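User: I would dearly like some help making sense of a protein record. This is the protein in question:
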Amino acid sequence: MDILLVLIGFVVLVAGGELLVRGATQMARAFGMSPMLIGLTVVACGTSAPELAASLAAAVRGVPEVALGNVLGSNTGNIGLILGFVALLRPVVSTNDLFRRELPLMVFVMALPMALYWNGVQGRFESGLLVLLLVGYMIALIREARQDGAPSDEEADQDLPPEAPLWKAVLSVVVGIAALAGGAVVLIQGAVGIAAALGVPDRVVGLTLVALGTSLPELAASAVAAWRGHSAMILGNIIGSNIFNVLAILGITGLIKPIVVDAAAMQTDIIISVGFGLLILPFLALFKRIGRVSGGLLMFLYFAYIYSLFIRTG
């Protein structure tokens, strides 16, 4: 039954990713916004919904290490697994705006947990600051969309779906997000059932199975975007999701219930997460793209990290 749930969840995720990407690109055309900004906002927030639900549930149920591990594992997986995988399908090209501004901001936000958990506790004050940072970031993106929403020259040559009425585009996004969330829930249920049968520890479950399961919406949406040639939306989705994971998920979760973890145990995983964020900067600085060789390297390093987790926990 658990294996069947995993298969059903995967199918629903693929369908949801197709609907979300199609609707999001149609919304970009309707509002005159670039696919990059749609990826940073609508797609990123929508695909990060499962991470928020999983982390809230973990914190409320008294397993905060699963909540934090979910965020760290998702951010690492977004870069190592998802970006690496889609780069194997089709090289992912960056825009100048993404490289100069959004990527450094993503690395900075991913490094915030190093300061937040120096003593193993994230209280409501720190959580409130994270939420305020998220609000400020979203306001800045909305202002940018109003001032200069037209696609850049680097995005103009990408194939876009046919124009559609705004209500159809919004409906496609809503249904796509719902399908992604539902598919992730079904898949996680099956994956956690398999993990329980194998006796996998909670911390590793958060960093691997839960993180992978809740990152599947990003994977599905990014794979569909890669198939359609929307490079800016892929990077926008990954960057926006990683920023949203730290600021929104840890912020909202910590406001509801302070997060207390073993600082020594989690610092290594925080450093590795930041390291993956830093790793893609030289690739884009030199080549302005994540090609198949770089994508293969990212995937290799990611699976080496996952393997090390199981080795460290015995």
Remarks:
- The chain is about 85% helix and 5% strand.
